[in-house]
């Protein structure tokens, strides 16, 4: 029963827990009971956070994808960032139909998550624990992330033999932001952006940088935007070899990371009119790691 109470406590706001018990079990359950059980189990989980997650041995053609990022939630101390990490095997990635742009949609059958409300220094040991023995085969690791400086520094310093990929769609969004700032007509912005996206996909980062540099008559805001995107690309060019990555059969987007934030953090903790105490966040999912099957 305590497991069910804890599940109700992390699945929805505490005030809704009695509705769940009433609907599924036909019994009444006080909100305070659910709160107490969730608190106790949450504290117990915190004790076990440093233990490494157990993973099966890697198969011959298997690689492990890893991503991490942060999202904001509102607490009694103001807006705070919850950092989330996600790991999954290339063999757990399945086709699931087509997107609107005719690209293949994938779903993940199993993932390992870790999350922490706090600093990167506090989060990194959790991510290390979630990696388990995968740390011993860094050449089989593929990290797909955005341009976060602390993320890139940590991963490249600790896993230089891994494959490091800048999320393609994040890279394109920087170009899209510039194009909206520079071009007055939406059609011109879309046409220019489409060409640059194609260059990026075929390792044409130098062509993109040249095209950016060749633009003239920029407004002050467009000039600032161009300087930002060019610096961003130059810092990350070694992570933008997209055609080579795709030839190896690797994914180049981190949409799974965005889905992780919605699943692990925002579904429970980012709701209209709610502000959590920091300690309550840690009890209901703001710190820890877990494995999940049937994830998106």
Low-confidence runs: none
Computed over alpha carbons, the radius of gyration is 22 Å
Quote the distance from N terminus to C terminus.
28 Å
Q: What series of H and E elements makes up the topology?
A: HHHEEEEEHEHEHHHHHHHE
DSSP strand content: 15-25%
Give the helix/strand class.
Answer: alpha/beta
Average pLDDT rating: 83
What is the molecular shape?
A: globular
Number of helices in the DSSP assignment:
12
Q: Give a quick account of the main beta sheet: strands, pairing sense, barrel closure.
A: 6 strands, mixed
Organism: Arsenicibacter rosenii
Protein name: ISKra4 family transposase
Structure report:
This is ISKra4 family transposase. It comes from Arsenicibacter rosenii. By secondary structure, this protein is of the alpha/beta class. Helix content is 48%, strand content 20%. The chain has 12 helices and 8 strands. The protein has helices at residues 2-11, 17-25, 31-47, 120-131, 149-158, 168-182, 186-201, 205-214, 220-236, 242-247, 255-269, 278-283, and strands spanning 64-75, 78-89, 93-98, 104-108, 110-117, 141-145, 163-166, 287-293. The model has no long low-confidence stretch (mean pLDDT 83).
Brief rundown of the structure:
This is ISKra4 family transposase. It comes from Arsenicibacter rosenii. This protein is of the alpha/beta class.
Give the helix/strand layout.
Blueprint: H1 2-11, H2 17-25, H3 31-47, E1 64-75, E2 78-89, E3 93-98, E4 104-108, E5 110-117, H4 120-131, E6 141-145, H5 149-158, E7 163-166, H6 168-182, H7 186-201, H8 205-214, H9 220-236, H10 242-247, H11 255-269, H12 278-283, E8 287-293
Parallel strand pairs: 1-6, 6-7
Antiparallel strand pairs: 1-2, 2-5, 3-4, 5-8
Protein name: ISKra4 family transposase
């Amino acid at each position: 029963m305590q497991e069910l109470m804890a599940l109700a406590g992390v699945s929805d706001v505490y005030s809704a827990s009695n509705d769940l018990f009433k609907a599924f079990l036909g019994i009444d359950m006080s909100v305070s009971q659910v709160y107490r059980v969730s608190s106790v189990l949450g504290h117990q989980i915190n004790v076990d956070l440093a233990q490494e997650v157990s993973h099966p041995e890697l198969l011959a053609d298997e690689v492990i994808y890893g991503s991490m990022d942060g999202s904001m939630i509102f607490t009694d101390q103001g807006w705070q960032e919850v950092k989330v990490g996600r790991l999954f095997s290339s063999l757990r990635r399945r086709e699931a139909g087509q997107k609107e742009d005719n690209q293949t949609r994938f779903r993940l059958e199993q993932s390992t998550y870790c999350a922490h409300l706090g600093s990167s220094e506090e989060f990194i040991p959790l991510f290390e624990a979630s990696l388990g023995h995968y740390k011993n085969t860094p050449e089989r690791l593929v990290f797909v992330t955005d341009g976060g400086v602390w993320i890139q520094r940590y991963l490249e310093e600790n896993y230089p033999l891994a494959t490091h990929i800048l999320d393609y769609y994040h890279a394109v969004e920087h170009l899209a932001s510039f194009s909206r700032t520079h071009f007055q007509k939406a059609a011109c912005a879309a046409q220019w952006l489409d060409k640059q996206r194609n260059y990026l996909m075929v390792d044409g980062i130098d062509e993109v940088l040249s095209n950016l540099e060749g633009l003239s008559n920029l407004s002050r805001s467009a000039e600032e935007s161009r300087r930002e995107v060019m610096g961003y690309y130059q810092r990350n060019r070694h992570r933008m070899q997209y055609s080579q990555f795709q030839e190896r059969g690797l994914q180049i987007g981190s949409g799974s990371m965005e889905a992780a934030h919605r699943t692990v953090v925002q579904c429970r903790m980012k709701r209209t009119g709610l502000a959590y105490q920091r300690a309550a966040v840690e009890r209901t999912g703001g710190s820890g790691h877990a494995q999940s099957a049937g994830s998106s």
